[in-house]
Write a structure and sequence with these properties.
- It is a single chain.
- The chain is of the alpha/beta class and about 325 residues long.
- It has 2 domains: about 150 residues, ATPase, nucleotide binding domain (Nucleotidyltransferase, domain 5, 2-Layer Sandwich); about 160 residues, Nucleotidyltransferase, domain 5 (2-Layer Sandwich), CATH 3.30.420.40.
- Helix content is about 40%, strand content about 20%.
- It contains 11 helices and 12 strands.
- The strands form 3 sheets. A 5-stranded mixed sheet has the order 3-2-1-4-7, with helices on both faces. It has a 5-stranded mixed sheet with strand order 10-9-8-11-12, with helices on both faces.
- A hairpin with a 2-residue loop joins β9 and β10.
- It is globular, with a radius of gyration of 20 Å.
- The structure holds zinc ion.
- The site of zinc ion has 6 residues, from loops.
- This is ROK family protein.
Length: about 325
């Protein structure tokens, strides 16, 4: 079994964000065997960004494991359109409807290429090897500069036709609330993202302790020290997240909510009020009592998840959670 696995299939994973382009060869236990990393030249033209992707792939191809690669999985900052194979990441203006799948296939020996949004990829990772493992119905979320997410329903990842399903950050929870960059109003992200936690705290007179940078981590630190403005800003974020989670649980019945991303690093300052608000919003019998837990996979979730999502889309059973449980 062990020697089979050592010689088994690999998936080349790419995690493409506004600041870095990461790549890895991922085995059927979810281990990252080889890694490559480039900064994203996000302010450059599209071809320059693509060249950085090509360099990451080129580095992976130099490894002996490349001949065992059976597919390429890409998790990208959104919006993505998996049905057309294109990406238009908000933070990479050089890429608008950029044909990433076709370009990566060309650079990767015409292997099958599967594209998903980064929220869906993180969800695939947490379901495969993280905090949602063993759950058939889960909502996974990233609370960071933005708020993203994804769904596992009936034991399977639900990417949706374009790879964006579960994008809880742009559910409106404040009907006449502030306008959101997405075009809507009162979105979860507009209330709960790191920059909005900071903005609200600053607007209400919070000053970072010891002249620190005004970050969500600094607000969390003040909250832990009992600063009422910092506590209130986290409480409002928690309330927005709880309302979005309750709506999701009511629609599709999830049993667990996994929360990752930098803001989740605030710990009890976020999770405490989140659980309290959730008890108020998720009230129907089938939605009450949802578990809320921190994500387990950290910054590798994008790569692990890109591989997991590709494996599911292509029916590569050896990469499934059931096999990982045996391993
Ligand atoms: Zn929005």
């Amino acid at each position: 079994m062990h020697s089979d696995r050592a010689a088994g299939s690999l998936i080349a994973a790419l995690d493409i964000g506004g600041t870095k382009i990461a790549g890895a060869l991922v085995d059927a236990s979810g281990r990252l065997l080889v890694r490559a990393l480039r900064p994203t030249p996000a302010k450059q033209d599209g071809e320059t960004v693509m060249r950085a992707v090509g360099e990451v792939l080129g580095e992976l191809r130099l490894d002996g494991g490349w001949r065992r690669v059976v597919a390429v999985g890409i998790g990208s900052a959104g919006p993505v359109d998996a049905s057309r194979g294109t990406v238009s990441p908000v933070n990479v203006p050089g890429w608008r409807d950029f044909p990433l799948v076709e370009r990566v296939a060309r650079a990767a020996d015409a292997l099958p290429v599967v594209l998903t949004g980064d929220g869906v990829a993180m969800t695939a990772a947490e379901h495969w090897l993280g905090a949602a493992r063993g759950y058939d119905n889960a909502l996974c979320m990233v609370v960071s500069t933005g708020v993203g997410g994804g769904l596992v329903l009936g034991g399977a990842l639900l990417p949706g036709p374009t790879g964006n399903a579960g994008h809880i950050g742009h559910i409106s929870v404040d009907l006449d609330g502030d306008s959101c960059p997405c075009g809507s109003r009162g979105c979860v992200e507009r209330l709960a993202s790191g920059p909005n936690i900071v903005r609200r705290a600053l607007e209400n007179g919070w000053v970072p302790a010891g002249g620190a940078e005004p970050t969500a981590a600094a607000v969390a630190q003040s909250a832990r020290a009992g600063d009422p403005v910092a506590l209130a800003s986290f409480d409002r974020a928690a309330q927005a997240l709880a309302a979005g989670i309750a709506a999701t649980a009511t629609l599709v019945e999830v049993r667990v909510v996994v929360i990752g991303g930098g803001v989740a690093g605030a710990g009890d300052v976020l999770f405490g009020p989140l659980r309290a608000h959730l008890a108020r919003y998720a009230t129907l019998s089938f939605a009450a009592g949802i578990e809320v837990v921190p994500a387990l996979l950290g910054t590798d979730a994008g790569l692990v998840g890109a591989a997991a999502a590709a494996a599911q889309a292509l029916g590569l059973a050896e990469f499934s959670p059931e096999f990982a449980l045996e391993g």
